[in-house]
Design a protein that fits this description.
The protein is mainly β. Helix content is 0%, strand content 39%. Strands 1-9-8-5-6-7 form a 6-stranded mixed sheet, with no helix packed on it. Strands 3-2-4 form a 3-stranded antiparallel sheet, with no helix packed on it. The chain is globular and about 45 Å long.
Length: 145
């Protein structure tokens, strides 16, 4: 029996690299200003640096590892119809070596084991699946190393 590959839709188009082999790992894509060195995530669609007001931002691959700067554990399903994942869940800010702070879901076997300063690494995985269409929403998260 052959199962059809599900359609995957990224939560943020163009936010990470797609590996071309099993040896490669995905990386977040940011923007860097060649004039002042300011780095942004997510990458900027426009080429203007907010910091120095000059043009010419370049896409760069960001480090896969960083440290948890702060986080919170959400214990209640949010209102509205935009979140379909498990509860409780953790949201945090991860500082990458480039000095960029990434707001991100955090993944851990036990959420209570997460700590500020903990080293984490990037993973790309399914966030939610629309059962009616079989479409998977995929996104980035960080998990303990």
């Amino acid at each position: 029996m052959v199962t059809a590959k599900k359609k995957q839709v990224p939560v943020l188009e163009g936010a990470w690299t797609v590996p071309s082999s099993s040896r490669e790992k995905p990386q977040l894509i940011g923007s860097e200003c060649p004039h002042c060195g300011e780095i942004y995530f997510p990458r900027k669609a426009k080429s203007l640096c907010v910091h120095c007001q000059r043009e010419g931002l370049k896409d760069i691959k960001l480090s896969r590892r960083g440290t948890i700067n702060t986080f919170t554990i959400i214990m209640q399903q949010p209102g509205g119809n935009y979140y379909h994942g498990p509860v409780p869940y953790a949201i945090g800010v991860v500082e990458l070596p480039e000095g960029v702070y990434v707001e991100t879901p955090l993944k851990a076997d036990r959420l209570e084991d997460l700590t500020v300063g903990m080293e984490v690494e990037l993973v790309i995985e399914k966030i939610w699946e629309d059962q009616a269409t079989g479409t998977e929403l995929i996104g980035f998260k960080f998990q303990p190393v």
